[in-house]
């Protein structure tokens, strides 16, 4: 590796840093990585790729959430170039590459969007529940964090739309909805408890019972899980006299109010749960 290629890489690194305006230590640590490559005689084939890779690797090591696409947008290097070069640099310098932490990402985004502490706390808890259920496996931490915030924000009175959240996390709205569905499917009853902290334990168990029934019920075949989940929430809330906003539930799950009511009726009509006759349809 020539001295010239190192200098060019450092120039690219400075350009990236000036565009992103992160902590000064990121730039300094990135310079150290490039210098270490030089001292170990490791070849820099494409300085722009190496600079972008060292910058991203620095952010990962220092737990500063920055998406690779954000760096690619201000660098000649492509996303694939950066990721491949980061792996090469990490292997050469014997460095592990930690994944971005959804908790750190949520903290950063909530601060940038000036969201309330309540929304951030709720989003963090949703993310924790999903992690406990294994939903994070093989999923980008950014799309996962976006889905957690989407669910948390749906229950809040904010102007933040689905499109706003997708843009903030640099994910498509379709991907955001898919990850939301994965999260809700995995933590449906536990999220009910989080959403209604004063709900009696029987209500949470009732949601579990309804969802388990639907897993094997003939009527539930080919029905979207999100609709069944929302119907189960409405049924439990109605049965245990918990105030619930059907429109808010529709926003959270992406299911229409009419579908929620239809799945509610399905659950009422096809379950033999004791006390079903106490359900008051006038409340929906």
UniProtKB/TrEMBL annotation:
The record's annotation in CDD domains points to:
CYCLIN_SF
Classification via Gene3D superfamilies: Cyclin-like
Q: What residue ranges are annotated as transmembrane?
A: none
Q: Which organism is it from?
A: Natrinema hispanicum
Q: What is this protein called?
A: Transcription initiation factor TFIIB
A GO CC term assigned to this protein in UniProt: transcription preinitiation complex
Annotated keywords: Initiation factor, Protein biosynthesis, Transcription, Transcription regulation
* Annotated ranges, domain Transcription factor TFIIB cyclin-like: 101-179
A GO biological process held by the record: transcription preinitiation complex assembly
